[in-house]
Recover the amino acids of this structure.
């Protein structure tokens, strides 16, 4: 009788970082549902990717989710973002910029935000529309 556990029954330690990243991204994505400045879909796409490296069952749960699965499938199948989500993302970025301007932040901070959010908005708007 061997004192060493069967290697087939040991958890794969290399999957744990992917699993942790997946659950962190799910938590941030779900938080984004109620926090307008936190994007939901990119975090859930990241979670689906991380789960593909660690837990096919969790990935399938996320992709099959009634609410969040559609945007993930659109992205994975067509690189698409539905127009509704494009509007929501660009509106959130514009509101954050407006709050920054009204908060009297320095011109350099505003310029950095304009460049970063402008680039993000250009990328989002350049994606095909999902159906």
């Amino acid at each position: 009788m061997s004192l060493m556990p069967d290697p087939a029954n040991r958890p794969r330690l290399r999957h744990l970082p992917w699993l942790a990243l997946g659950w962190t991204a799910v938590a941030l994505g779900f938080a984004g549902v109620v926090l307008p400045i936190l994007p939901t879909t990119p975090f859930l796409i990241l979670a689906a990717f991380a789960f593909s490296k660690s837990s096919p069952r969790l990935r399938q749960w996320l992709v099959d989710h009634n609410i969040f699965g559609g945007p993930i499938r659109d992205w994975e199948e067509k690189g698409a973002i539905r127009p509704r989500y494009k509007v929501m993302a660009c509106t959130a970025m514009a509101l954050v910029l407006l709050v920054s301007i009204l908060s009297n932040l320095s011109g350099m901070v505003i310029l950095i935000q304009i460049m970063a959010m402008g680039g993000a908005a250009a990328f989002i708007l350049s994606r095909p529309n999902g159906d």
